[in-house]
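This entry is listed as follows:

___
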Amino acid sequence: MPRIHLVSNLPGVNALGDHLRAAGLGPTSARSADALLVLIDRPLDHVEQELLDRARQSVPVLLAGPTVRSLSPDSPLIDASGLTPGRVTPLYDLPLIPGPDGAAVAARLGDFRPRESWVIPEKVAEDVERLLMVRHEMGEHPICTWRPSTGLGIFTLGAGEELLADPRYQRLVGRWLRHALGVTDAGPVKVGLIGAPDVFGVHIDAVDAVEGLELAALCDGGMARPPGQDTDRPARRVDDPDDLVNDAELNLVIVATPTHTHVEWARRALEAGKQVVVHAPMCLSTHEVDELTELAQSRSLLLAVYPDGRDDPGHRAMRTAVHRGDVGEVMWIDVFSGGLRRPAGTWHDDERISGGLIFDRGAVQLGRVLDLVDDQVEWVSAFGHKRVWHHVTNVDHARVLLHFAGGCEAQVTISDVAAAARPGTQVLGSIGSLLAHDARDARDGHGGAPRSLRLLAHDGTRTALPTGPHDATRFHRELADCLVAGWPLAEHQPEDARRLVAVLEAARRSAAAGGAQMAPG
């Protein structure tokens, strides 16, 4: 395992160090390091010669963030790097693009646009590898480099604490380190997909689009496809799902079956030695989540949950605002999803298969609530009404109330009978509120992510917050990074899935008891 020594005086750099450690890249002591990563905002003085000596000893030295700006123009590190820095720009939203030598570093980069200043180089030596570039003033300029002849690299992003804590930036730094050390990714992961066509379409498109994942086999169990659903792909069609999970060619199985069979097929895939992703909600009980988690751990296999709804840019913008403290201490969250909609009568509307209205359609909304409030849920109260749609077994209208240990409360309402309701989310805090309206029409019944997001401060200030473009492959890119490059899949672990299932399970018990308060198990 490569050992990295991190030299820094910047606040927030601990998050980068934790990420590198989780990815198997150190950090460690300078004496035993295989590479040195420097992020510092002051002159290096006598340390410069030591860094040059280490680089001459084939220990890569990578200067990131404000380090280059802190060096004197005649610094020997500048000369050895092959990049002569020029002027520093103001803050920009910087769309990063791969450089001519940076395909491996930029793999699965996505649309990453960090907002930060950067250094426009005056001169770049011919033997400098240009790994990441920025388009600016009718030209393309290197922002991340590596010079094999001297063992020095420069990355002029990473001066701000917010960017240092961004997992996308952390992965770029990690890939830069791997490039300097000559560490390459493993080969593509062959994926098998088992599930219902109305659920697994998102996975088909994403796997096709992500480098490092290859859709090799597909099984829908003969389930009817929605009108217009196209699942014709080069992937091999498998009739029996048991054949798919036992296929020796496959490395990863994505389980997107009806909810009541998640545990069965995830268990079979793990027993067959496959890495496994399960569409949320992972299971119908915490007991099942614990069973799968123990099985995966005992076999050193990945078990992850696809976070339906949580990777949406609207929700991520809301989470960023809440965690940044824009509304102060969160006191109340109110979410409505649905409208007047006659259920189609698919498995989603069958309580025995989907787990009921709260499990099937409340899981997305409750998952978002739990993502906003980092606190223990003390109790859950839920109630359902069955008055209108008698051709299905799910209730027509359900309300779930969560009470957190710190006093915050959240209410999630899911309805197929609310003709006048306006889907959306409100977050009430001690210094302001966030108001969001869903992207999907209320009649869709599922409730999309926030289309517009407004911050209303108690001083009367109103601010429209950007939500960014939709990123349909974010989870799958992070999944591929985990499987072929070893980066930690931090946000999609079984413990997160268990917390959601515990709340859903408590809501089901509460609804059966007429709204009684139930503590999650």
